[in-house]
Design a protein that fits this description.
- Helix 3 packs across helix 4.
- By secondary structure, this protein is of the alpha+beta class.
- The protein has a five-stranded mixed β-sheet with strand order 1-2-3-5-4.
- A hairpin with a 2-residue loop joins strand 2 and strand 3.
- It has four helices and five strands.
Length: about 180
Amino acid sequence: KPNAKIDFTKADVEDVFNYIVNQHNNLEQISQIETNEDGEQEEVEYYQSKSGIKERITSFLKHVSKNIYANVDKSQKAELIRQSKMQKGTEVHKTIEAIVKRFIDPVTGLLKTTADPRPENLGIEKEVYNYLEYYTQQRIQSYPVGTRFLSETRVVWEEQGLAGTLDFIAISPTKAGGFT
């Protein structure tokens, strides 16, 4: 059943993996042009499931943080620094995502015996890539054999009308380990 609930504390690793993959596959990301609070047109992304459109957690948090940080320095210099930090954060995030995908079989979610080769264009400084690759590899290999992994996975919280993307999920084959 695509919308059936699952008890993550009692289900086995394959059932949890299949449930999350099914949920991901049943959410479609859509974009709409809307007028924001400042009266400007902007592209807003939502997820749509069979039960309707869900607000992205990112949009919800953006609204919350805008209110929290309303009095933050808005000078041109401060804005350039913020934009630079956001850009670097996005680069690092995309790099880690690509590294994870090199180590994980996209169909089974299991750790590959041999990782895919590094891309020729790393996208960031080699020293930073080396560190991120080492850390990511150590982290993934620290899980028990048989752990199923997912990355950039769409999920929905139907009761709250929210949906979002989880960067990384590890579903341990041991009940004690659960998932992260």
